[in-house]
């Protein structure tokens, strides 16, 4: 069963024509699914629908098979869907510890909070190493890992990542994608939106190309990477031989 599934979703903003026009995607347990597509295709809109920030006009949102269409962000988080926003959202004047523990504000059991904090420090070593530093003193890539750690405090079923490599140099990008794999291996499914499509598909298990509000093609990420037409259209050139 999928951790999260969007089925035939139509969604958009105000009176404008819908951005998503019958879009479907499923994120099976234990997988990284990568969503790619041209600028403005609606990738972030998919994450807004999946996290409950935007209600679909029609279609369904299922979490672990349960219909949660129209549920708001608080409910979606409680049901195990965590969102890591695009750009940087750490509180720079607060320590790494304070930032990470904020992610567990809905946990009332102190022992559980401590257990989760220990888990995220082990999973993302830089978070543990810089635990007492001010978050604003960390590099962009390290701050992104603090955001990952914060989202993992509630032990989500699935984490939605909106362009985690944005603004990072190639080395930091590489670390971030390695951490995405570690998150998956530790039991959290991931729905990843990326501009850096080729690199993201190399990391993901499954890929989905969004264009004109619908799924253009989806399947194993390796197959999408090897598809010459997709390479030309969406991945910035021919596939590497
Ligand atoms: N809050 C909003 N109000 C009105 N229109 C919006 C809003 N957010 C996004 N849009 C419009 O919805 C469309 C899809 O935007 P979205 O951000 O989902 O695309 P994207 O694929 O994530 O783009 P990018 O790769 O550039 O980040 C765009 O035409 C955008 O202008």
TrEMBL record:
Alphabetized UniProt keyword annotations: Amino-acid transport, ATP-binding, Nucleotide-binding, Transport
Source organism superkingdom: Bacteria
Record PROSITE patterns: ABC_TRANSPORTER_2
SMART domains, per database record: AAA
GO biological process, one term: L-amino acid transport
Pfam hit, one: ABC_tran
InterPro entries assigned: AAA+_ATPase, ABC_transporter-like_ATP-bd, BCAA_Transport_ATP-bd_LivF, P-loop_NTPase
Presence of the UniProt keyword Hydrolase in the record: no
Gene3D superfamilies: P-loop containing nucleotide triphosphate hydrolases
Domain ABC transporter: 4-237
CDD domains: ABC_TM1139_LivF_branched
Entry's Gene Ontology molecular function annotations: ATP binding; ATP hydrolysis activity; branched-chain amino acid transmembrane transporter activity
Family: Belongs to the ABC transporter superfamily.
Entry protein name: Amino acid/amide ABC transporter ATP-binding protein 2 (HAAT family)
Organism annotation: Paractinoplanes brasiliensis
């Amino acid at each position: 069963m999928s951790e999260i599934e969007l089925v035939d979703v139509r969604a958009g903003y105000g009176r404008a024509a819908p951005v998503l026009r019958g879009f479907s995607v499923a994120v099976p347990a234990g997988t990284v699914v990568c969503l790619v597509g041209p600028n403005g295709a609606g990738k972030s809109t998919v994450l807004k629908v999946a996290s409950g920030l935007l209600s679909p006009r029609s279609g369904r949102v299922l979490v672990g098979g349960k219909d949660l269409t129209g549920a708001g962000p608080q409910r979606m988080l409680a049901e195990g869907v965590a969102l890591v926003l695009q750009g940087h959202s750490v509180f720079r004047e607060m320590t790494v510890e304070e930032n990470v523990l904020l992610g567990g504000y809905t946990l009332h059991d102190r022992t559980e909070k401590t257990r989760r904090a220990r888990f995220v420090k082990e999973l993302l070593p830089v978070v543990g190493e810089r635990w007492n530093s001010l978050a604003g003193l960390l590099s962009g890539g390290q701050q992104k890992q603090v955001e990952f750690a914060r989202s993992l405090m509630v032990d989500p079923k699935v984490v939605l990542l909106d362009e985690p490599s944005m603004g990072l140099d190639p080395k930091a990008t590489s670390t971030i994608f390695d951490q995405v794999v570690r998150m998956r291996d530790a039991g959290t499914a991931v729905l990843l939106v990326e501009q850096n499509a080729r690199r993201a598909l190399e990391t993901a298990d499954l890929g989905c190309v969004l264009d004109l509000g619908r799924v253009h093609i989806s399947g194993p990420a390796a197959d999408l990477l090897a598809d010459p037409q997709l390479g030309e259209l969406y991945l910035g050139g021919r596939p590497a031989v």
